[in-house]
Amino acid sequence: AEQGVTANITFEVKAATEFDGHDFDLICFMDCLHDLGDPVGALARCRSALKADGKVLLVEPYAGDRLEEN
């Protein structure tokens, strides 16, 4: 709000495979994709929600190679 971007951004809590919206320029995952119940489904939903030239920013600095490591 201090930066005047409240008309351009929203934060919602939804299942990663069921969020609303489309034509996003950018969808970000910050150290969380490995914790989702269906990470592949989440990324598939993102693909369908992005603009043709949209991007996914995925930051996973501490994810283990196996589920039990996370």
Q: Can you tell me the overall shape? A: globular
| SS class | alpha+beta
Rg from alpha-carbon coordinates:
14 Å
Unreliable stretches:
none
- Please give the count of helices: 1
Largest sheet: 2 strands, parallel
What is the CA-CA span between the terminal residues?
Answer: 34 Å
Mean pLDDT: 88
List SSEs in N-to-C order: EHE
Output the keywords:
70 residues; alpha+beta; two-stranded parallel sheet
List the helices and strands and how they pair.
Elements: E1 24-30, H1 39-49, E2 50-59
Parallel strand pairs: 1-2
Structure description:
The relative contact order is 0.23. Strand 1, helix 1 and strand 2 form a beta-alpha-beta unit. The model has no long low-confidence stretch (mean pLDDT 88). A two-stranded parallel ribbon has the order 1-2. The chain is globular, with a radius of gyration of 14 Å. It is of the alpha+beta class and 70 residues long. Helix content is 16%, strand content 24%.
